Amino acid sequence: MMLLRSLTGLLLGSACAGAAILVTPTGLTNSSGVSEFFPAANLINDSGLSGAADFSNYTSITHASAANTNAWTTTNPNGADDYFLVSSPGVTPVFEFDLGGSYALTDFVFWGYHFNAANGNEAREFFFEFSTDGGGSYTSSTTVSNSLSDFAVQNAETLNLGGTFSANTVRMTIQDNHFGGSASGGDRVGLGEVKFVAIPELSSFGLLVIGTVGVLGFRRRG
């Protein structure tokens, strides 16, 4: 009985320590071929952030004014008009993020596209699809958004995904920016940095220990 309690306590302690973590994708693919003015690699390389972000401090980490070295943005196919102009929309940005492992995702985190003030180019509506087989198939999805003129600017914005989604790969489709809101811009689509809040999925070792606890418990009852 003491052994069962010890093993169970070990597992529960690990799960609780659980602890949410901040996940930075390890790779990304521009799967829509959208034209980039600032490169998409800046979305996941921590460039522009004021410090090393983790779950305990990311809300206090800020992002610098947008530049070719620290942010991502598209070209402006409609000149100064809306990037998502109904009669002539730009290519919808779609990115596939490799998370570098399997996670139970709960929130999307991003830093805005800005020049030390709100900018209409900042992306605000996101459609996410989740894959557990490296992008071979996407079996669940959700849409999250900020209201028009609710800007992240230099701060981290956290959007709850509305559930917990298992994934090792995430496909993100940006569906709108802040054109027509309270700030100029909106002829492009941009962001500073993206991450996810997640709970690590149970490892093979954890599953093995759970199985062992179950067997021991069965034998003792028997």
Task: Name some characteristics of this structure.
222 residues; alpha+beta; Jelly Rolls; 7-stranded antiparallel beta sheet; 3-stranded antiparallel beta sheet; 15% helix; Galactose-bd-like_sf
Largest sheet: 7 strands, antiparallel
| Percent range of helical residues | 10-25%
* Element order: H for helix, E for strand: HEEEEEEEEEEH
What is the fold-level CATH name, i.e. the topology? Answer: Jelly Rolls
How large, in whole angstroms, is the Cα Rg?
21 Å
SS-derived structural category: alpha+beta
User: How many runs of DSSP E, i.e. beta strands?
Assistant: 10
Transmembrane segments: 196-218
Keywords: Membrane, Signal, Transmembrane, Transmembrane helix
Signal peptide: 1-19
InterPro entries: Galactose-bd-like_sf
